[in-house]
Specification:
Number of helices: 5
CATH topology: Rossmann fold
CATH architecture: 3-Layer(aba) Sandwich
Structural class: alpha/beta
Radius of gyration: 13 Å
CATH superfamily: Response regulator
CATH class: Alpha Beta
Largest sheet: 5 strands, parallel
Helix content: 40-55%
């Protein structure tokens, strides 16, 4: 499994990376602009991500922006709806305002701090691990 972790906060970034490294390689981005750039590079190299963990609150361009851009890029490339990259939005904000409007674009919302058991459960749900 190849993952992209998009997180500006060091401790959260390292925690998610620690959990996901067990299953494969992990790349890091610290803002939405870097996330979209990394996504494009992975596609150009024919090494697409299986999973993107995308924080909502990010500097420069936030997670909502990056999510929409990635889904637009998939649409432009003609990706079938059954095979888009799996995107887990991560947030410390448990209010509906931050979830509303993008729930149809992402696969899951994970509340921080991320717990390994919850992450593994969601990875299994989306057939990323067994």
């Amino acid at each position: 499994m190849r993952s992209l972790i998009v997180e500006d906060e060091f401790t959260s970034r390292m925690q998610i990376k620690y959990f996901l490294e067990e299953y494969g390689s992990c790349d890091i981005a610290v803002n939405g602009r870097e996330a979209v750039k990394a996504y494009k590079m992975a596609i150009a190299e024919n090494k697409p991500y299986n999973l993107i963990c995308l924080d909502i609150k990010l500097p420069e361009k936030d997670g909502h922006w990056a999510l929409k851009e990635i889904r637009n890029l998939e649409e432009d490339m003609g990706k079938s709806p059954e095979h888009p990259v799996i995107i887990f939005m991560t947030t410390a904000m448990a209010d509906a305002k931050n979830v509303y409007g993008t729930q149809r674009l992402c696969n899951e919302y994970l509340l921080k701090p991320i717990e390994k058991e919850m992450l593994d459960e969601r990875l299994r749900k989306h057939n990323l691990i067994r």
